[in-house]
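Hey, I was hoping to borrow your eyes for a little while. A protein chain has come my way and I'm curious about its shape. Take your time with it, there's no hurry, and the full record follows here:
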Amino acid sequence: MLPKMARVDGKPRQMWQKYLGTAEKIVELKKRATGLPHIKLTSFQYGKTAALLAISEELNFIDIVNRHTNKKKIEGLTVGEYLLLNIIGRCDGALSENAMQKWFDKSTLSLLWKFSHRLTCQNFLNHYKYVDHETSKKIEDDLCKALIEKGLTPRILFLDETNWFNYITKGEELPQNGKNKQYRNHMKQVCTGLAVSEDNVPFMHEVYEGDRHDSKIFPELLDALTERLTNLKITTDDMILVFP
């Protein structure tokens, strides 16, 4: 199938789709086109991208993000679409925002999404500023509710803590000096705790200052996780918590 996408009221919508034939027919057409100078054939990976787009639509991902981000309605991609682009791109491998446009041009999304501006690192950063810690929690809550409605209620949760260094030198609360996993202890770091289900689906995250030891923050993470599960009306009586 070949779909045609367009933006309607600021949202991507499928306008039409055409059946291209069986795989055998497409291979035969490709053979016939070989050697014709005016015909250029390009192949795109489609299965993974289509699956991620379908999951996003089923969970209403873009609308959930946009609902909690206070961005004025202007021409171009929304915050939710930028985040989805980042997710799909990084499912293909390690990818920086600087490399996103090059990846996009060679991806199936270039056939489905049309917009006037380029995917620069600055454009990504301009949209990320709308997703602060409290906003990300609200987005996470709504996504967890959607997952539970789909029957993905966790029975086992794996809780772990990690950290990463950064190049922030001053003016922020979270980045602090500590012993990070990359052995760049002279640089400031941010710590995070993440709880995922037995299906490897994230159900909670918390970020905290880089100079706080894992053993000190663990009781707070446990309280936050219990509160999250209670708000989602998930019983913890028979739940198993796994942590290192």
